[in-house]
Amino acid sequence: MRNLTDFFVFMLTVMAAQNGVQGQELVVQIQADHVVHPVSRYLAGACIEDVNHEIYGGIYSQMIFGESFQEPATSASIPGFTKDDLQISGMWRAVRRGSAAGRFSIVSERPFVGGQSQQLTFDSGEGEWGIENQGLNHWGMSFATGKSYEGYVWARAEKKTELAAALESRDGSRVYAQTRLIVASNEWQRLDFTLTPDAMDLAGRFTLNLKQPGSVTLGHAFLQPGAWGRFKGLPVRTDVAEGLIGQGVTVLRYGGSMVNADGYKWKNMIGPRDRRPPYAGTWYRYSSDGWGILDFMDFCEAAGFEYIPDFNIGETPQDMADFVEYAKGAADSKWGQRRVAEGHPQPYHLHYIELGNEERVNAQYAAKFEKLAKAIWEKDRDIIPVVGDFAYNKQIQDPLNFSGADSGITNLAGQRQILELAKANGREVWFDVHVWTDHPVPGNTSLAGMFSFADALDKLAYGARQKVVVFELNANNHAQQRALANAQAILAIERDGRIPIVASANGLQPDGQNDNGWNQGLLFLNPSHVWLQPSGYLTQMLSQHYLPQMVKCDFVGARGSLEAVATRSENGKTLVLQAVNPGDLDVTAQIHIAGFMPVLPAAQVTELSGPPEAVNTASQMEAIAPKKSEWPRELNGASNRHAFPPHSVTVMQFE
Fold it and tell me: How far apart are alpha carbons 478 and 245 in whole angstroms?
């Protein structure tokens, strides 16, 4: 305390809390020396998957979309040419300059990867004949003046042919950088290049053109920023990586419905990324594994995140054993040697593996899980396999006879089988359930269902080591109301104390590219910028003010819509109050603290508030952002009341 007067005022506050208060005014009573349970550091998590192109067009440094020309042909429109001669893979468009005349063809003979490649033929005239790519769904590529861009193209030609690669304006009126490549063989060859634009453009394009008669077949194209624009040398956009770090994310899960596609297998994600086979993805029919599970693990280790990769439940036991050996095996083991050869000499710090996503956890799933879990434990007994469970929208009364999971499960027999597996092997298993946080509602049924699911597993466990985790807080919006609902869920989870990891879906969302319905991104991005949505700021607030011990926090009087929890540091010198007021009215409360002696006379307050439907846009990136203040500004005998605004999340830190 700074002086005796401050100390006297603080002690009066403590005495009021201990002796009760008169009337019905709301009081938040914090007993700072009464530790209830630990608080996990990993409640500030996010889930990423390639839904709405979070990977391709998002975190992945590859700027080209449609890299291997697998999309169906579209017919370009050029006056004087028939549509049959203008067949171009769907994410590319025609380029024609001068009097050049020619053809575009999709060819299936000897494709580089997948089922087809793109052929360009310049027949006659003068000028240029080629194709251009503007990135994800033609949203444009961002070029920085004087910065290098690296790339390559796989091509072949029956006769020696010269191909030009260039960075241009969207309409082709400006060429910012250009290089010429010689295609010398009818066998596939990789042609590397570096391009350095002489001007900035936030929505440019990449072109591959023939400048004289000839024909070339293209198999794969790649373009990314030089080391200046990639996070620690990885194939990851620096600004997106820094956005996730700045958001305060502590754990990332890489998974979701994308893992349910038959072609989603980890062995398709290793080796040269241009040779990885395309497959029919859950969210995009022409998906690619150019950025996969191991790229995700590399990124998380470089960023300092805990991480959980999710696998298709159809992986074989041998393939899962091989993965664990790849990730954690000795450098002289078969798959450890492969890891070392691919640039990762040290084992990964892998602690968790999820198996499946939103599965019907019945006897069939449990049998698959058992085989995979045993294969994992045979290689590393410390890895915790996670059940890819579902959402439970009704409270569970009888663990062996209930109805309430969206997946149609009517009992927990499958879960019981998995618990028996864990007990028999002396290992631990976790169960991932998903919770809806569209908007704050009293008695969130999926949140209540999650807690009752945890209760049910406790009854079924009979000594098996197990936990429930939440790898997806899900919503159909990214507005302030979603931040409020996330806050409600996380505060309830903190108060419960049993759930060690919470991740909010979806971690990323390319702006204006929502073509899969999940309009819930925490961190938005376009080709040149990243910015947080309200729910991203919520993650940041909770992460930046994390303290490891939950302390007793109660309400006296009618609290209205206010919810709150309190945490403290291990040494007891820092105290944090987290509160959410999702209602339409201010809630004013006295804040009484016992068992804590502050040194600073004012609490530091961070507040996120605004209309429920408010979002942040590319033109107004901080329309809804945290505001900082102090409370009270002086401990001079004034009221210890604080008004929590409507539709707000407030964090108050006392030291």
Answer: 19
